[in-house]
Specification:
Layout: E1 6-10, H1 14-24, E2 29-33, H2 59-68, H3 72-78, E3 83-85, E4 90-94, E5 97-98, E6 107-109, H4 113-125, E7 130-133, E8 138-143, E9 150-155, E10 160-162, E11 165-168, H5 176-182, E12 189-205, E13 216-220, E14 228-234, E15 237-244, H6 254-262, H7 267-273, E16 277-278, E17 283-294, E18 305-307, E19 313-314, H8 322-337, H9 345-367, H10 379-394, H11 399-409, H12 421-431
Parallel strand pairs: 1-2, 1-11, 2-7, 4-13, 11-18
Antiparallel strand pairs: 3-6, 4-5, 8-9, 9-10, 12-15, 12-16, 12-17, 13-14, 14-15, 17-19
The chain binds flavin-adenine dinucleotide.
Flavin-adenine dinucleotide binds at residues 11-16, 33-36, 47-48, 50, 53-57, 137-138, 169-171, 199, 285, 287, 309-311, 317, 320-324, 326.
Length: 437
């Protein structure tokens, strides 16, 4: 009989919290270790610097988190966080053109990353068999003499935590590849898409509510209009995250920043903020590359260790996939805990890879539509990108296409649904160049 006495989760971000929740269903005790203070934190924290920037939860992530933590969505709404429909309450723009309004029935909650993480964290902390070890830095893995089994971790100060299962959720800076190498295993092969992405974020108070019942203006960057913006209503404040690609970055000085806003293909954002009250410093963040680590390709892997979240795959953030994939990996972990044993790492990574495949294809494939992004473009990627360009043009006319696009981008429906003959006909009809008379 395999012992399920204690699981240790490394990292208390979204992936770590979801893993802790799932592990608590079958382990006697779950310890979650993080280098930050977690309890009571409502602001962006040091260990999650991306938390200061726009964070949207995809429709699938909303569904999965609600399933794991029933009532979470209502709880956020009750706390005053704006909620609405993904297709009717968000204004989506591509190349300065707005997608047609479409009721999707998919709920969107305009929570900031700290708000969402805080709500999930409170639920996980309330579980009787979960303990948070805060302000503790993880140093190393503890391993059996034959190096075949991980038996725990060491923390700063040398303290050792014994564990039957260790789950690495320390984010994209995960040390598991280096630890594996030190233990005589191969490092996982890394797939990288260099995008040179930047975010610059600040908050405003506006003279008037420019969005009405709507929750956000999403000005999505494209190769033709490479500057993007996420402008969201958060109660009585507004968040503006500006994005630049391939080395472009919104300046943090007042004039440079405003000039960047003015250069966006959607003038409404400049109109809203040019005379608004700035509430904080402009914060910049660089994201050089999306990274996928292919643990599923390794022949040998120690028992008693798994990797989840950004440590496994860190997606281009503008697609908003990371937290949703972390939640889906939680479901994969749960499936691998059915039956009483410890999860088999190879089988877990194979299933997690299937979870990652579609969103990775969507985001890394989409990034290859930028001529400046290096990488091989197989014919299917070229065709998919050309089709998606037409689909987004067609969605300016046809709300049914907007709805289908939201469902696919939200990971609710497979992206192949967008290529069905009936949809392709609608796309073709609505994206034909108009005849000149
Ligand atoms: C700018 C930006 C915007 C994004 N926007 C979105 C979005 O709109 N939607 C979306 O779904 N995703 C978005 N993401 C991705 C999202 O933030 C992550 O995918 C998601 O948070 C899952 O991350 P994680 O929990 O694996 O890692 P993280 O959130 O990075 O958490 C890792 C945790 O591990 C801890 N840690 C690390 N090392 C140690 C150590 N040695 N000892 C102790 N603790 C340690 C850290 O303190 C931290 O708490 C965005 C990312 C960026 C960069």
């Amino acid at each position: 009989m395999v012992n399920r006495d204690r699981a240790v989760v490394l990292g208390g971000g979204m992936a770590g919290l979801v893993a802790a929740k799932v592990l608590a269903e079958s382990f006697r005790e779950v310890l979650l270790v993080d280098r930050d203070t977690l309890t009571g934190v409502t602001d962006p924290r040091r260990g999650v610097p991306q938390g200061a920037h726009a964070h949207g939860l995809l429709a699938k992530g909303q569904e999965v988190l609600e399933g794991m933590f029933p009532g979470l969505t209502q709880e956020l709404a009750d706390a005053g966080i704006p909620t609405g429909d993904l297709g009717t309450n968000l204004r989506w723009y591509f190349n300065g053109k707005r997608l047609r309004w479409a009721s999707t029935g998919l709920k969107v909650v305009s929570a900031t990353r700290p708000e969402l993480e805080g709500a999930v964290r409170n639920r996980v902390r309330a579980l009787p068999n979960v303990t948070f070890l805060e302000n503790r830095s993880i140093q190393d893995l503890v391993v059996t003499q034959d190096r075949a089994q991980i038996t725990g971790v060491t923390l700063d100060g040398g303290e050792e935590l014994a564990a039957d299962l260790v789950v690495d959720a320390t984010g994209r800076g995960s040390r598991t590849p280096a630890w594996l190498e030190e233990l005589g295993y191969a490092r996982p092969e890394e797939e990288k898409v260099k995008i040179g992405l930047s975010y610059t974020t600040c908050h405003y108070r506006l003279r008037q509510n420019v969005l009405g019942e709507d929750m956000a203006i999403l000005c999505v960057a494209t190769p033709e209009n490479p500057r993007g913006a996420f402008f969201s209503r958060l109660g009585d404040r507004y968040l503006l995250s500006l994005t630049g690609m391939l080395g472009d970055q919104a300046p943090t000085d007042p004039e440079g920043h405003l000039a960047f806003v003015k250069s966006l293909p959607v003038p409404d954002i400049y109109e809203a903020v040019h005379d608004a009250e700035l509430l904080d410093e402009r914060v910049a963040f660089r994201f050089p590359a999306s990274i996928r680590r292919h643990y599923e390709h390794l022949d040998r892997f120690p028992r008693g260790l798994l990797v989840v979240g950004d440590a496994l795959c860190s997606f281009n953030p503008v697609y908003g996939q990371g937290m949703t994939v972390a939640a889906l990996e939680g479901l994969t972990l749960r499936a691998h805990l059915v039956g009483g044993g410890l999860p088999d790492a190879k089988a877990f990574f194979a299933d997690a890879a299937q979870v990652i495949d579609a969103p990775w294809a969507m985001s890394s494939g989409g990034d290859l539509s930028w001529p400046g992004v290096e990488g091989y473009r197989p014919p299917e990627v070229l065709m998919a990108n050309a089709y998606m360009d037409r689909l987004r043009v067609a969605a300016q006319q046809d709300g049914a296409i907007t709805g289908a696009f939201m469902r696919a981008a939200g990971l609710i429906d497979p992206v192949t649904d967008l290529m069905r003959p009936s949809m392709a006909v609608r796309v073709y009809r609505n994206s034909r160049p108009k005849a000149v008379v």
